[in-house]
Automatic annotation (TrEMBL):
Annotated InterPro entries: DUF8086
Position of the signal peptide: 1-21
Lineage per the UniProt record: Bacteria, Pseudomonadati, Spirochaetota, Spirochaetia, Spirochaetales
PROSITE patterns: PROKAR_LIPOPROTEIN (PS51257)
Annotated protein name in UniProt: Lipoprotein
Keyword Signal assigned: yes
Keywords carried by this UniProt record: Signal
A Pfam family that the UniProt record links to this protein: DUF8086
Length: 391
């Protein structure tokens, strides 16, 4: 596995404090390494339709490797920007492909599911409108029998999850956007205003692509498949415009808080970073590429910007964090800190993450090319790691 740091420990989370954030990169002191006991984190693994706590990663149930569109895995993860409940803890959410949505609140985890909605569907693309989670589903006809769609009166696309009732509602269907029942919307980009969608149909062993954009004329949570015809401004689009919406940008264009957070990395570091905003729209991708000949050396990373903190998790488990967690003081005098999450087995990677209260949740999965085997998540008690608070 590619790694930012070469030293790992199975039994400890390596916790780094940047001692000289004000120094130049050339003179900056290396981070101090402080070992933290293993009881500050817990492993969880997915079963076919749920999850279970495991003592160590190798205890995860063995499952056959499947294409990532078909495997039970965390496909998208983020958090709300705020909370309107009495305790005020913003919740984290993770879309679990083929399974449901995980709701993280502090150190508690709940799986909410709807077998009729998730069975046979690829789910992902978590975004928020007014702090309400929305995500998309589609059926991959490449790996599934296309005849399975013939019994459907409509094809769901955009789904709303209501945090209070823990219920899923279809919001927009494929037909609402002008496509017939042959099509599935396999991807979208929402920039906060315009939704740009890619649709695909398979017929007579041929694949046909089509594109559209839409803009809601009223709050997204007020739209249903029944009123979407009068509530959406729909327009044809193109492959060129869709690729433009997906454009990756140079890391120099990343948010200032993220660039400051990663300021200690070598200037030659190669990585591709998907940047999410708490309670926000689709992520933007920023690339730091110094090896022009190949992207194989690039580490994949996910960033999450919240009002009071920001974090970046690399696939090797290197996690950078800065700011103040919920109901906690600013950590490390306002300077970035870095943790090394437990080393994964060969062939495993960390992907996205979220934070709720003072608990970090990071997705992990066994991956090989386009297939995924075992998968789950780790929960890290940041109170014990960063604030030395015992529970």
């Amino acid at each position: 596995m590619r790694s930012l740091f070469c030293r790992h420990s199975v039994f400890f989370i390596a916790f780094f404090i940047f001692l000289a954030a004000s120094c130049s990169k050339k003179n900056e002191l290396p981070p101090q390494k402080i070992p933290v006991q293993a009881q500050t984190f817990s492993w969880y693994a997915f079963t076919q339709n749920s999850f279970e706590k495991i003592a160590k990663l190798s205890d995860a149930p063995v499952v056959p490797a499947k294409p990532w569109t078909e495997a039970v895995r965390i496909s998208s993860i983020s958090c709300a920007a705020s909370a309107d409940k009495a305790d005020g803890i913003p919740e984290g959410y993770a879309v679990v492909n083929r399974c449901g949505i995980l709701v993280f609140k502090g150190d508690s985890v709940e799986l909410c599911s709807d077998s009729a909605l998730f069975s046979g569907k690829t789910a992902g693309n978590l975004v928020f409108f007014s702090d309400i989670p929305f995500f998309s589903v589609y059926r991959s006809t490449f790996f599934n029998d296309a005849d399975g769609k013939k019994t459907q009166d409509f094809t769901p696309f955009l789904i709303q999850f209501t945090p209070d009732q823990r219920i899923f509602y279809p919001v927009v269907t494929v037909q609402n956007l002008g496509f017939d029942s042959r099509y599935e919307i396999t991807d979208f980009i929402w920039d906060g205003t315009v939704w740009t969608c890619s649709a695909k149909a398979s017929e007579n062993e041929k694949t046909v692509f089509s594109y559209c954009t839409f803009q809601p004329k009223e709050p997204l949570y007020a739209i249903t498949p029944e009123n979407a015809g009068s509530s959406l401004l729909v327009a044809e689009s193109s492959a060129v415009k869709f690729r433009g919406a997906q454009e990756t940008l140079d890391f120099s264009n990343a948010p200032a808080r993220i660039k400051e957070l990663l300021g200690s990395l070598p200037e030659t570091a190669d990585f591709s970073l998907s940047c999410y905003t708490a309670g926000g729209h689709s992520p933007r991708v920023f690339v730091s590429a110094h090896n022009k000949k190949s992207s194989a050396s690039q580490l994949l990373a996910n960033a999450l910007l919240s009002e009071n903190w920001c974090g970046v998790l690399f696939e090797d488990g290197t996690f950078f964090l800065k700011g103040a967690l919920f109901s906690r003081p600013v950590m490390n005098g306002g300077k970035p800190v870095a943790l090394k999450l437990p080393k994964l087995l060969a062939g495993y990677v960390y992907s996205g993450f979220t934070v709720s209260g003072s608990s970090l949740y990071a997705a992990w999965e066994e991956t090989s090319f386009f297939k995924t085997g075992r998968s789950g998540f780790i929960c890290v008690d940041l109170d014990a790691v960063l604030y030395k608070v015992e529970k």
